[in-house]
Design a protein that fits this description.
Aspartate Aminotransferase, domain 2, seven-stranded mixed sheet, Aspartate Aminotransferase, domain 1, 15 strands, globular, 15 helices, alpha/beta
Length: 469
């Protein structure tokens, strides 16, 4: 048998043995974001804890990254995956459908707002967001308006790591290396309830000039060239759980209606119970045309995401070309859909959405009591089980740490040392400066778990303040 061209290195038994039991402290062959430092290695998950190779347990207060809503090691979901894999592990969704995908779409249609009767499945949030852009573009083609192609987003924001989703979002650190490849999408400033924004610094509340910027932008671009506006109900990874001012999305909806613009709501983080309702749109009274989802729908057991669309939008395609010209190899994957069904059954059966709403006060009460008064903490914000802790160099002045100091990453490292996992972010103020931590516990976290998460985080931030202030 001829040797494969790439298999030219003479291998030794000792090398094979060493690779088989690779030291967790060694650099992995996996290409990861940090190519200089080895990543922490976890070998098991139980409940709301991750367990390292040395047996040490860590409370996962980030749910991975807002994903593991049921915690870890849920036999019911694992069994659903196993059963579907034994029955039918794959169909190409460009041509065929499997029962789990049909059933999951039916289930999602019952918990989305009225009028949302159709669902497209992808493998994650980035794919889902990009798919929604292509859907919006085709919708306007079917309507006989081919000049509509622009997507208007906000800054800061994050909608995914593909080129189109990076173009629609505005996370400076993730965009800057790829700037020549990005699409010329336009962005308006996101409202900031903690610092104010470039449009309104009134002491008596928001004037909604931040929302009116959308109308000014549409008029500048030409509204008949804009396909859709995209926004997160609560801005997660790009601004640390920043919530909108009252009336913001109602004004956005009015403007979209005035100029016939589709409103896409990115619920990759907020969907499926994260902020105490099935969708953030419902809690905040947003009336969208498309809802992007991912993360919590699969509980982290499989890659799964997608978007839900108003039936009337799909009807325009049905009555026109009769086709949505888009698909992926693993779209509507039967095993992924079976996992999603199992996760949603558990969320509904165990009333976990209601549980998040009930324990929201406990989480934010503990956070504000334990970290809110620390000199390094400027703001604690969010809703449901989505909390942001903004880190500042000067509490009174709300001064940020210098960009490039890596303060959020240092805080997350200290938290890990204290036995709690949180998600670090930066660039939430101007794209470069502005450090924050996200706290996103699993829905099954007990009151004691929440207390311990906040207590360990407080110890980490006390150490951070000792180092920096």
């Amino acid at each position: 048998m001829p040797a494969c061209r790439g298999d030219t290195r003479e291998r030794s038994p000792m090398l094979d043995q060493r690779n088989a039991r690779q030291d967790p402290g060694m650099m992995s062959r996996v290409i990861s974001p940090d190519l200089r430092q080895p990543a922490p290695v976890f070998v098991r998950g139980e409940g709301v804890e991750l367990i390292g190779a040395d047996g040490r347990r860590y409370l996962d207060a980030a749910s991975g990254v807002g994903v593991t809503c049921l915690g870890y090691s849920v036999p019911e979901v694992a069994e659903a995956i196993r059963a579907q894999a034994d029955t039918l592990q794959y169909l190409h969704a460009l041509r065929f459908e499997a029962p789990p995908a049909r059933e999951l779409a039916e289930r999602i249609a019952t918990i989305t707002p009225d009028g949302f009767g159709r669902v497209f499945f992808a493998s994650g949030g980035s794919e889902a967001a990009e798919s929604s852009f292509k859907f919006a573009r085709q919708y306007w083609l079917e309507r006989g308006q081919p000049e509509r192609w622009r997507i208007v987003g906000r800054w800061p924001s994050f909608h995914g790591n593909t080129l189109a989703t990076l173009s629609a979002g505005w996370h400076a650190e993730r965009r800057k290396r790829h700037a020549p490849l990005l699409l010329p999408f336009t962005h308006i400033e996101m409202p900031n309830n903690y610092r104010g924004c470039g449009h309104c610094r009134r002491a008596d509340g928001c004037s909604l000039a931040c929302a009116d910027e959308l109308e000014r932008t549409l008029l500048r671009l030409g509204p008949d060239t804009v396909a859709a506006f995209i926004a997160e109900p609560v801005v997660g990874a790009a601004a640390g759980a920043m919530t909108p001012p009252d009336g913001y999305f109602a004004r956005i909806r009015e403007i979209c209606d005035r100029y016939d613009i589709l409103l896409i709501v990115d619920e990759v983080i907020t969907g499926f119970g994260r902020i105490g309702c099935w969708f953030g749109s419902q809690r905040l009274g947003i009336d969208p045309d498309l809802i992007i989802f991912a993360k919590g729908i699969s509980g982290g057991f499989v890659p799964l995401g997608g978007f839900a669309a108003r039936s009337s939008l799909v009807d325009a395609m049905t009555e026109g070309s009769g086709r949505f010209e888009h698909n992926f190899t693993f779209a509507a994957h039967p095993v992924a859909a079976a996992a999603g069904l199992a996760v949603l059954r558990i969320i509904e059966r165990d009333k976990l959405v209601e549980r998040v709403a009930e324990l929201e006060g406990k989480l934010f009460g503990e956070l504000r009591a334990r970290v809110g008064s620390l000199p390094v903490v400027g703001d604690v914000r969010g809703m449901g089980f989505l909390a942001g802790v903004e880190l500042v160099a000067d509490k009174a002045a709300k001064a940020t740490f210098a960009a490039g100091m890596g303060v959020a990453q240092r805080a997350a490292s200290l938290a890990l040392d204290e036995g709690v996992i949180v998600y670090p972010g930066n660039g939430g103020v101007d794209g470069d400066a502005g450090d924050y931590l996200l706290v996103m516990p699993p829905f099954v976290a007990s009151e004691d778990d929440l207390e311990q998460m906040c207590a360990r985080l407080a110890r980490a931030l006390e150490r951070l303040g000792g180092e920096l202030l």
